[in-house]
Amino acid sequence: MTSLAIRLKELNDDRLEEFIELFADRIGEAYVAIHRMGQANDKGRDVVGFLTDAKHEGPWHLYQCKRKTYGSALGSGEALVELGKVFHHHAGGGAYLTLPTRYVYVAPRGITGPLRDLILNPSTLKAELLAKWDTHCKTGITARGGEPTPLTPRLRSLIEAYDFGQVSYLSATDIVKHPAAGPALGRVLKVPPGEAPAGEAPAALQAEEIEYLDQLRRVYGYARGTAFTTVDAILADDEYGPDLGEHRTRFFEASVFKRFHRDNTDALALAAFQKDVYLGVIGIHRRGHATGFDRLCAVMDHASIMATAIGGTLVRVPVRQGVCHHLANEGTMKWMP
């Protein structure tokens, strides 16, 4: 974790905002939309997450990225200016009609002790912003040479009414330890997520596997010369039951693998892996085969020897084979028409 935190500290502004955008997308806050806004005239917003379709007219969260180029931690003065910007632009009535219901300083290099004390004591943070407005915010909010921003009665009332318990911070260490960091670590820092856990087929048939199982039901019936009326009848069959059981295990191996990488890897990498499997086996699938069972066996055999990887890590055989069943389940590469 230490080395990852160091790498996160070295990201430039754009890459840090990209990282936090991906991080916010997986943080589990049920955002309906996430926008990366950090640029000139962003009105104090780097990355925002909207909790409803009302967007800036409803509840929203703000992630304010403070990279600190020269290794210093984020201090109270700069932090107060960033907070002041939010109240200033809200009071102006044009940028956002509501204040953020969560304000997060993203400070990879950490924050100073005095700022930490302020954040951990919300009423003190509120009092400090009011007391130090003229010192930090009056000339710090607008661009150099711009008009001063005095603490007007309107601004004072907004600050006094705001719940400063909604203000928090994240350091580089906090971020890389967070369960939501996986996709961002994979896409921005190119960190492999490790090995996905193995999957097992539940005893009871699941709704998610019905389509490919029905195709296999017809495959086995054609091979037997007598139709199987149900999947359970195949599972109870001495000849084909064990084979179908292994195919179900492969399907769920792939299901667990895909869920793991959706949570821990860039989505583009997972899509590329599945496309690689498809392109690797579709030629075998399309060849003339005496029976559907022969096609099934040929595709499984070929999938077992393909050197298909995700994030530079070779994927296990049952996962590659299971992805073939997912392709059948989706109708992309059916076992039987």
Please explain how this structure is put together.
With 337 residues, the chain is α/β, with parallel strands linked by helices. The chain folds into two domains: 2-188, no CATH class; 207-329, no CATH class. It contains 15 helices and seven strands. The strands form two sheets. The chain has a five-stranded mixed sheet with strand order 1-2-3-4-5. The protein has a two-stranded antiparallel ribbon with strand order 6-7. The chain is elongated, with a radius of gyration of 27 Å. The model has no long low-confidence stretch (mean pLDDT 91).
Q: Main attributes?
A:
8% strand, five-stranded mixed β-sheet, two-stranded antiparallel sheet, 15 helices, alpha/beta, 2 domains, 337 residues
Question: Briefly, what is this?
Answer:
The protein has helices at 2-9, 13-25, 76-92, 113-119, 122-131, 133-137, 153-161, 172-177, 182-188, 210-224, 231-235, 241-264, 267-286, 292-305, 317-329; strands at residues 33-36, 47-50, 60-65, 102-106, 167-170, 309-310, 313-314. By secondary structure, it is of the alpha/beta class.
